[in-house]
Amino acid sequence: AVREGGEVYVVDGLVGENSILTALSSYGEQNLSHFHSGEMDVTGRSFQSLRGDRILWIDGHQGEPPLVAAFVQILRETVGEAIAEGFPDAKIAGRLNACADAMYAIYPPGGSGFVKHLDYSGGEDLRCMSAVYYLSSIDPKHGGSLLLYPKNSKQITISPKKDRLVLFWSREVEHEVLPLKESSPEFREAISYWYLKEP
């Protein structure tokens, strides 16, 4: 893992299995009609100019291909347990209390990105650490990069790279997704997941 100032962590080659990556991408392609516009808040409002992705929730159980379900379990259990052990003071909830679903997001070329925001919405929101796993590699010249704004260090720019996992603190690190230019030969595909604090 590459550590960026203690607030952002990057892991390349998380899975290393082309069969899982292929299964995830194929699942997205086969279910494009089920994707819907990403929402800006708990009211369910969506604004294409502020957030241009289309999303699909996957839980790792209901009617999903075995390799897709297996990947969600890798996020939920293997990565989750490693985070809990590595950051005991964060009091990450055990896997049975982890966020139930993963979010598959697709940004099409020529669309909007996602404006600067914080994942944590306050109040009863238990999200503690955010994870973004890339299914596609995008040349930085085509846009689509993730910009992170840690409190204790300078801005970090991370380009989408297949099989790359990015972790950052949900309550501290504001971030945004740059728009994907029309010149991009492919969509920006990623799966996001959130690890919760103990209630």
UniProtKB/TrEMBL annotation:
Organism the protein comes from: Amorphochlora amoebiformis
User: Which protein is depicted?
Assistant: Prolyl 4-hydroxylase alpha subunit domain-containing protein
Record-level GO BP terms: cellular response to hypoxia
The Prolyl 4-hydroxylase alpha subunit domain is annotated at: 6-196
Q: What is the lineage of its organism?
A: Eukaryota, Sar, Rhizaria, Cercozoa, Chlorarachniophyceae
**Keywords, sorted A to Z:** Dioxygenase, Oxidoreductase, Vitamin C
Q: Which cofactor does it need?
A: L-ascorbate
Which one of the record's GO molecular function terms can you name?
Answer: peptidyl-proline dioxygenase activity
State if Oxidoreductase is listed as a keyword.
yes
